[in-house]
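User: Sequence recovery, please. Input:
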């Protein structure tokens, strides 16, 4: 029961008791009756004073507590006639002013922080206390190819379907690393945290470094290739010319004593020619021309690649299947370069299978893409991370040029690509920019 009600009940009881006693003496002893009535009046005055000095300030403070409970920091308590109670009310009002200012500052800072996160070119993944995804800013959604935040919200990074989710989940506090996706996209990722309600609240910053690192990488290997080609071609040209002259002289003056020399000279000449061809392959990667864009039907491109590679697949007893979209997707690209890219990818696929397998060429409209899938041996994760690195190869006689060519052509066409091995299939997906579609 509230104190105010108890107080008035006490007043009624005391005043009623005094009135009852006074009524007993009303007819027998008028003087006692007057004294009792005087005491009753004095009690009423004392009760009124107590009300204004104790009950009313207490009630005002109780109302103030309700304001605090409801987090209403804009209302202030009214001063009363009691100076002692006014001191307490003044302190309470001052506290409310401070709380209002602090709350306003927190709101302004949070609003500024929200705007900063939303406008940041860096991706920001905010996690809850159990490391589930709580929020991702627009840059993070774009960098990680997430169409809808609700698809990943509330999930663990490793269970979210994000291509680098497992690697992000393994990040340690304050760790700053470069992570490479299954294609060529590279991200600089850092895990940090902020304090929320007394607990460490983790978040991850993501910055794409693909363009910058690829530019540095390309300039480096272009300079190396140019220097190698210049030195090797000069030396090979001179040596080949000399060997050719020696070979002609030996043939004109052939005798038994020179029987072992002539084959050695011819073999050396062939090695020089092979070396020249070898270095020319590297030089061709540097000289890839800018794409000559023209309208190309994606399905027709797939059929053309099928015709070029079907015979080799047949010799290896590998089924080559087309799964083409019914839509007529006409896009702008360099048909010759893209044909070489797809032939190269299929060549890698049937070489990986060896014999007795299946390769599928799949075109899709949403998203606009083409996929080369094969059921050969999967690609280990450590190899997949290096596969598009310049000059990297898993073949004993390979030069690591084929996938370099693929990478450069796709980058020049602004295409995204992804390589995955799962469920017994290795899939190479190429995604075309939507603005190239007609």
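Assistant: Recovered sequence (438 residues):
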């Amino acid at each position: 029961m509230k104190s105010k009600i108890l107080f008035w009940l006490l007043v009624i009881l005391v005043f009623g008791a005094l009135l009852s006693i006074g009524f007993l003496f009303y007819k027998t002893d008028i003087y006692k009756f007057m004294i009792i009535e005087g005491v009753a009046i004095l009690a009423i005055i004392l009760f009124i004073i107590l009300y204004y000095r104790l009950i009313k300030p207490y009630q005002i403070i109780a109302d103030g507590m309700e304001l605090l409970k409801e987090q209403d920091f804009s209302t202030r308590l009214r001063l009363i006639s009691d100076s002692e109670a006014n001191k307490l009310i003044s302190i309470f009002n001052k506290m409310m002013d401070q709380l209002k200012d602090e709350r306003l500052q927190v709101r302004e800072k949070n609003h500024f922080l929200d705007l900063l996160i939303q406008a940041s070119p860096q991706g920001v993944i905010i996690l809850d206390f159990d490391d589930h995804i709580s929020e991702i800013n627009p840059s993070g959604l774009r960098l990680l190819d997430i169409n809808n935040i609700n698809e990943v919200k509330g999930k663990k990074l490793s269970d979210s379907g994000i291509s680098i989710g497992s690697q992000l989940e393994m990040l340690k506090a304050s760790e700053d690393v470069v992570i490479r996706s299954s294609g060529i996209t590279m991200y600089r990722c850092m895990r940090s945290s902020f304090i929320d309600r007394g607990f460490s609240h983790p978040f991850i910053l993501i910055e794409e470094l693909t363009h910058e690192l690829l530019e540095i990488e390309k300039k480096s290997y272009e300079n190396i290739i140019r220097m190698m080609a210049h030195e090797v071609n000069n030396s090979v040209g001179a040596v080949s010319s000399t060997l050719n002259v020696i070979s002609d002289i030996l043939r004109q003056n052939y005798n038994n004593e020179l029987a072992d020399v002539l084959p050695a000279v011819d073999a050396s000449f062939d090695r020089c020619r092979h070396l020249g061809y070898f270095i020319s392959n590297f030089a061709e990667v540097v000289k890839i021309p800018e794409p000559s864009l023209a309208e190309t039907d994606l399905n027709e491109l797939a059929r053309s690649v099928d015709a070029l590679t079907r015979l080799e697949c047949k010799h290896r007893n590998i089924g080559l299947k087309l799964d083409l979209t019914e839509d007529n997707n006409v896009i702008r690209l360099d048909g010759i370069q893209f044909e070489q890219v797809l032939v190269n990818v299929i060549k890698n696929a049937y070489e990986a299978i060896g014999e007795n397998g299946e390769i599928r060429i799949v075109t899709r409209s949403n998203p606009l893409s083409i996929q080369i899938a094969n059921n050969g041996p999967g690609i280990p994760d450590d190899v997949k991370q290096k596969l598009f690195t310049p000059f990297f190869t898993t073949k004993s006689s390979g030069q690591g040029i084929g996938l370099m060519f693929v990478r450069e052509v796709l980058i020049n066409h602004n295409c995204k690509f992804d390589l995955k091995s799962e469920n017994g299939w290795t899939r190479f997906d190429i995604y075309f920019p939507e603005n190239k579609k007609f």
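The mean pLDDT is 77.
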